[in-house]
Amino acid sequence: MFCWAFLLPAAAQEVDFDAEMRRYGLVDIRETDPAIRVELKYATDDNFVGRNMYGELRNAYLVPAFAAKVAEARRLLHEMRPDYTLLVYDAARPLSVQRRMRKAVEGTGNEAYVADGTRGGRHNYGVAVDLTIVDADGRPLDMGADFDHFGREAWVGQSNTTTLEGYEAFVDGLVREGAISRSAAENRKLLLGIMWRAGLRPYVKEWWHYQEPISMPRTRETYRLLDF
Fold first, then answer.
1. Contact indicator for 78, 198 with CB cutoff of 8 Å
2. Is residue 68 a contact partner of residue 30, using CB atoms and an 8 Å limit?
3. Tell me, what's the pLDDT at 115?
4. 9 pLDDT tier (thresholds 50, 70, 90)
5. Where are the beta strands (DSSP E) in the chain?
6. 92, 59 in Cβ contact below 8 A?
């Protein structure tokens, strides 16, 4: 039987992630915009690891300027659909958690989707967010693939896609392939549009993941690694 004990050792449970996030200068997204909802998937067992990776953490933290862009996206969404809001699934992620996630997928087909924690990915700098759109009852819109789905159905583009029109065309192509429904495509394009207008860009293999349009080397030069 596979043992999950190494994924969340007792020592990790003792770390006050909220205090550490604030010590690193990050803000709770709901302090920036109380209308944004939060359900950290890695604080539950509803994720690709199948275990709680965050212990008692329930708040989504981001670099302040990045949080402001997510709040702007929520404002743009409200203008279009006052009954909708954003639901954050993941935000800043401590490097220790990143390493445990990577350990969980090493040697599997999912390894390519998870940064190894050697230098840190964008989540480990507080400048990436995983999110979706929910209706007035808090129900997530159909996006055609679940959060943490590792497959083409979750894509929004290819490595050479650089424009909003290109991303939208790719999503429309998934409909023609029969990979996702037309309604799911429209929901995905709605999320793409508001995030793009707020200044954030998608990771092509995850419809839920958005980041700044800057390189990883520049990210590392600009922001502080959440090394705890």
1. no
2. no
3. 81
4. very low
5. 27-28, 37-38, 61-62, 85-90, 128-134, 201-203, 206-211
6. no
